[in-house]
Amino acid sequence: MRKLHILSVIFKPFSIVYRHLKHSLVTMDKTVKLSSGYSIPLIGFGTFQIHGQELIYQVLDYALGAGYRHIDTAVVYRNEEYIGSALKTLLPKYNLKREDIFITSKLISQAGKDEGFVEQMVRKSLFNLQTDYLDLYLIHWPGVSGMQVTHPDNVKYRKATWNALCKLQREGCLLSIGVSNYTVKHLKEMMADCNGIVPAVNQVEWHPYYYQPELLEFCRKQGIFLQAYSSLGSSNTSELRNDETVKSVASGLQKTPAQILLRWAIQQNIGILPKARSRERIEENLALEFEIPAKEMKQLGELQKSVGHKFAWNPETVV
Question: Tell me, what's the pLDDT at 15?
Fold first, then answer.
């Protein structure tokens, strides 16, 4: 019965999304209304492991030219400064204003640091990105840098971080705030004392080898938008893209494995953040105006039971 429940949770949204998408399969311009009242593009451009001023400029030039309007970064990516510099030149090139794009950044809580430190880090992100506000700012990880994941003070420091982000949202320099890698346990703990602000987004690992129907169900009940990272698996391996089921579905629909994996999340109304460096791949990852039939969606969803595993860090270990 539990297996049937899980499948019903994961596949129930498919029918809901289908009713919307069958009238308009164009996903490039699709946005989702967050609990904060602001809208977030369903597709964003990820910048993890993309470094250096010249490369950042090049990939953002390709991305904005292709139609991306959401850029995702983080303090630990060490590229905020380069993104800010690139956007200063590229926005006018594409006749865009700051309000035409959506920028996300994130930070990890630090052991021994209070709310003042968090505010300082956010303002540094604003300075590096050359903007006076960010559309979304996330707590990157429920654990704390410099502290064992089993230490009870993880709870205290992530609470302090949330308090600081709430303050900055009320001041207007952060339009929406949220979390990343939070489990249902972490979300329940937060929402029991969240300063009246429910996290607008939870960004988590989500692909056919690893997904959490219970987490999706909880987030939707609480009005938290789920965003997927590692949609194509790890940058260090092509295992997921080379999966025989993924390749078979791709071949049948005359799409690439990457497009199938990205569309799989989109059809669950889950945000995606694909990253790429070449113009070809950047454009390919945005060309998702097609539909995966229900049978193939189910086949992809069953990969977790037969092959599944994570590619990224495991938040379940964090108290």
Answer: 35
